[in-house]
């Protein structure tokens, strides 16, 4: 094995970790893969023999690439991010054995958390993701954000408070999540408004991201409150009647398909047996880049 092959083998040992970092930073699995590929190219231009901690070096390089992309997004954005934005989901079929174990072994993060992370400033997001999620020391993060270690610690602390305050409570048990989701779907298909309201938290929030081109009732929107969300569920019940239950990121969700293409993906948060948040991606352009799970076609 030559030096290049050996380096590639060592890099592959870190790929999963790097993709996890990039996904949390950018919210898109596809963009995460591109970032990791760029990290590999930068490693090839470096002097690998002089790198003492390859994993740490790759993590900070990946973080730096992601930070540059986030700053570029912010610079291009003429208005604050629309509150209807829903990140690209990771869709997997339900396992035939134990969905709890499947979720435990899946390196994923909830759609709800990604929505909150998208509200952070780029430097805050980097400090929070690298330190709080991947235990990277502040001394290693500080040069990336061009701040002192103390100032970087403050970035992470501020981000931590914002994440804590904005992330909806969520039931981690997949079985309980599915009970709530099944009850919601049964009520929607049966046209039972009262049953829908009963399974929704009074302060439930629905985000529907249909992209920039879809208008009218099917366009992007944010709804708050059980009655408003229940009314919307009844309005669109005929479109979701054939939706299949899948794993969306780290929890239960739904995927609707037609003609072998995905029409919508729904992720939920559940607390106390009731749905507290619904995140719907219905943007045809972004959905066109997703693969239909084998058992959801």
Record field, number of beta strands:
7
Order of helices and strands: HHHEHHHHHHHEEHHEEEEH
Gyration radius, in Å: 20 Å
- Kindly name the structural category: alpha+beta
Strand portion: 15-25%
Polypeptide structure, described:
By secondary structure, the chain is of the alpha+beta class. The protein is built from 13 helices and seven strands. The chain has a seven-stranded mixed beta sheet with strand order 1-4-5-6-7-2-3. Helix 1 (3-26) packs antiparallel against helix 2 (29-45), helix 6 (122-133) packs across helix 8 and helix 9 runs antiparallel to helix 10 (193-199). The model has no long low-confidence stretch (mean pLDDT 88).
SSE arrangement:
Blueprint: H1 3-26, H2 29-45, H3 54-76, E1 91-92, H4 99-105, H5 111-117, H6 122-133, H7 138-145, H8 149-166, H9 174-190, H10 193-199, E2 200-209, E3 221-224, H11 226-235, H12 237-240, E4 244-248, E5 251-258, E6 261-271, E7 274-281, H13 284-287
Parallel strand pairs: 2-7
Antiparallel strand pairs: 1-4, 2-3, 4-5, 5-6, 6-7
Helix pairs in contact: 1-2, 1-3, 2-3, 3-6, 3-7, 6-7, 6-8, 7-8, 9-10, 10-11
């Amino acid at each position: 094995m030559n030096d290049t092959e050996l380096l590639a083998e060592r890099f592959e040992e870190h790929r999963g970790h790097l993709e996890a970092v990039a996904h949390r930073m950018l919210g898109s699995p596809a963009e995460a893969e591109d970032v990791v590929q760029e990290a590999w190219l930068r490693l090839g231009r470096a002097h690998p023999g002089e790198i003492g901690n390859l994993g740490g070096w790759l993590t900070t390089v990946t973080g730096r690439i992601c930070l540059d992309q986030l700053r570029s997004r912010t610079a291009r954005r003429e208005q604050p991010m629309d509150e209807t934005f829903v990140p690209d989901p990771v869709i997997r079929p339900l396992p035939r054995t134990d969905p709890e174990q499947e979720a435990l072994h899946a390196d994923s993060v909830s759609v709800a958390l990604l929505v909150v992370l998208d509200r952070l400033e780029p430097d805050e997001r980097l400090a929070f993701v690298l330190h709080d999620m991947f235990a990277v020391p502040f001394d290693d993060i500080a040069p990336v954000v061009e701040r002192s270690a103390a100032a970087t610690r403050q970035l992470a602390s501020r981000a931590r408070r914002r994440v804590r305050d904005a992330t909806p409570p969520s039931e981690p048990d997949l079985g309980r999540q599915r009970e709530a989701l099944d009850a919601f779907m049964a009520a929607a298909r049966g046209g039972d408004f009262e049953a829908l309201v009963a399974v929704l938290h009074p302060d439930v929030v629905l985000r529907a991201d249909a992209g920039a081109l879809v208008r009218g009732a099917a366009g992007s929107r944010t709804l708050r409150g059980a009655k408003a969300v229940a009314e919307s569920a009844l309005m669109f019940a005929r479109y979701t009647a054939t939706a299949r239950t899948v794993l969306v990121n780290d929890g239960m969700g739904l995927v609707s398909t037609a003609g072998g293409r995905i029409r919508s993906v729904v992720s939920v948060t559940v607390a106390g047996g009731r749905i507290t948040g619904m995140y719907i991606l219905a943007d045809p352009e972004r959905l066109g880049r997703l693969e239909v799970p084998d058992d959801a076609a």
